[in-house]
Structure prediction request, 174 residues.
Amino acid sequence: MAKIGLFYGTDTGNTERIAKQLKGLLETKVGNGEVDVKEIYKKTAADMQAYNLLVLGMPTWYDGELQGDWEEFIPEMKKVDFKGKKVAFYGLGDQYGYAAYFCDALGLFAEIAEQGGAELVGLWPIAGFEHDFSKAQRGDKFVGLCLDVDNQDELTDERLQKWTAQILGEMNLN
Prediction:
C-alpha cells in the first residue's frame, strides 16, 4: 500500500491537533505506520514529491493571511510535480470573524497543486457554514474540508470521520 504524506503548518496547535486526529482515523483503515505526519516548516519540494497520496492542512489567518510556514513553502510547492498525485486539503478558519476570507489558504494551494497536475480529492459541501466568500469555494463545494474550531468545534469530529471515509474512497484505499 502507498504511504500517505500528511503535511501541516500551525501556529496555535489547532491544525497539528487535527493532523494527529486524521492520522489516527486514516491508520484505522490503512494500517499503522502508513501515514507520515510532517510539519511543513523547513520542508522542500522533495519531501512532498516522495508521496503519491497527500493530505495538506493549513489555517487561514485574519483577512486571508497564510500561516507563515506555508507562505514560505509557496516557491517549493510550485516545484512539486503533482502529476499522478491525489491531494486532499483541510483547513481551519473563522467563518464569523473573517467571513469574507474563510479558509482562503485552501483555494490558493489547491490552485498551485492543480496547476502542477494534481487530482484533488475530498471536496466538501459548503452546507452548514455561514461565510460570505472563500477562495476555497467552487460552486457548492470547498476544495477540501473546512473546519471552524472556534465556532463549530462540536461538528469537527463528525466532519473528520466523514471526510476521512470520503478521501480513502477517492484515493482507492477503502
Notes: The chain is about 35% helix and 25% strand. The helical segments are 14-30, 45-49, 68-77, 104-115, 156-170.
